[in-house]
Each structure stands twice: as C-alpha cells, then as structure tokens.
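chain below, 218 aa
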Amino acid sequence: MQDALKHLNRVLRVYGSFVNNEEGELLAHIMPKGFSVKVLKDTGQQALQGFQGIESSGFAINRVVWDYENYLIISERINGGIVSVLCDKSISMPLLNLTFNLVIKKIESIIESGEFQPVEEEEKPKEKPPVGAETDPKFFDLIEVHLAKFIGPMSTIMVDEAITEMREDRDNFPISKISDLVKVVSKKINNEKKQEEFLALMIDPVDELLKRSKQNED
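prediction:
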C-alpha cells in the first residue's frame, strides 16, 4: 500500500496521502510531520460519515473536498474505505484523477485481503525547551505549533518554505536570523490580524532563545 501512496505523492503539488478503512481506522499514510495518527483517523471518520450519510439517502458520491485556507484534503471513496490526499489548491485535477484511477484498484485489493493492520498512535517524545548556542531543532517545532493555530497542519511545509526562501537549512540555521525567520513565516498567514497574533505568540520564545544564546557566548 505504501507504493500506491508514493505514486500519489509524486503528483505535482500533492504533499501527502493516507488510507482509512470503513471503520475510519488508519491503514497507511505518507504525510508531512505534524499530522498525527489521531488527526488522520478523525479526518477519515468524518469523511466516511459524510459518504455514508449521503449513501443512506439513496445517492452516491465519489469525493469529498475539505477546503482549508492554504490547502485541500481530497477524500476519494473506494471499496472498503477511502483514500485521501493533502494538496495545494492549484493542483491539476485531471492529473490527480488519472493517478487515483491507477492506484485505487491496488489499494482496494490490499484492503479486501484483510492483511493490513491499522496504524497505531505514535508515542511522542518528551519535548525540551530550546537551548544551546545554535538554533535548537525543537524551536522549529515550536514555530510550527503556533503557526498551525492559524493555517492548520500545513505549518511544517510552510516553515520549510520560509527557511528555503532565506537560503538556509534547518540543521545549520543561524540563530542570529531567527527573528527574520519568524517574520517570513508570518507572511504565510493570509490575514494581517492573524499575522500579528502569531508574531505576538513568538515574541517571548524568540527573546528567550536569543538570551540563552548570548549567555552561552559570554
């Protein structure tokens, strides 16, 4: 099933994909960091309830589209469950439809075999506050958590985009540019008031990180 999802993820502007069975249990996924098993199960169950409600009325639909501010989640009905993709709003629907047609039969066959076990919730490691002279990776997680409050689970992708725009990388990101990064990330929010709210949330964490960095230099 992972091979089928990899095929979906190769479609331009598709960021991830996942499969739920008829009970909403998560069977497989290739998604960006930030999408927990619980979130994918809840999304699958909500989509299935929508499909089943319409089907019980004597109608049939093949697709549900979740329209968020910066992205779409498209759920396709299949025998035995649903297949969903996380994608950009500018995705080519004809290309996505063609790819769906190529992989759905394979996924249906695997579900029918009953050999695939639901994915269990991952155990989350304990978080530690950002420390040290360089930008701690946990600080990027903090940015993503606050950004997700405004744009949803696409926050990880948006932070990566901001880092790339600054021609830097996570592993060697200069702590002197962390304030600039937060400003660039804020522009990913398509609402000025929400941008200000995000920046307000980041003031104390940025100040604390810079303060610790200075103390280490001394």
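The first strand starts at residue 14 and ends at 21. The beta strands are 14-21, 26-30, 63-67, 72-78, 81-87.
thats it, cya
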